[in-house]
Amino acid sequence: MEPRVSLFGNEIAGKFVKRLIALGHVFEESSLPRATQELVKIRASQINGCAYCTDMHTKDAAHAGETHQRLHLIATWREATVFTEAERAALALAEEGTRLADAHEGVSDETWEQVRKHYDDDQIAALIAVVATINAWNRVNVIARTPAGDYVPGQWG
């Protein structure tokens, strides 16, 4: 499969992508656990059908020590016993924040209460930033048809 557009070979796309990369530094430097960040990125990417981001973030998570069992169960996290209550709250927020068009209320009060229970204000801000940023990346890569499968952990920094 060939991409529709080269995200780094086009001046406008390149400028946009560089800014998306810079956005990632905000939450990467936060106290939100890195494992939680990757779980959220993977779940949103699965929902959005972004093969490139799913490939990238499952490989990055595995490279950072995430277990194969947990990676295989992200799509069915509600029925899986391998995620902490805090991670479950983050995954619920990721799903509801990604599926905005599917729910008239967006993020439910119940999910928000669980997020507040497990994360401080800075971590919540980082969590919101992760959800917003990965959704932007998913849309860029799905629209551009960026092919998946060749990503190497750490390839982009």
TrEMBL record:
Chain coiled-coil ranges: none
Keywords attached to this entry: Oxidoreductase, Peroxidase
A Pfam family per the record: CMD
Top-level lineage group: Bacteria
InterPro entries (UniProt xref): AhpD-like, AhpD_core, CMD-like
A GO molecular function held by the record: peroxiredoxin activity
Protein name from the UniProt record: Alkylhydroperoxidase
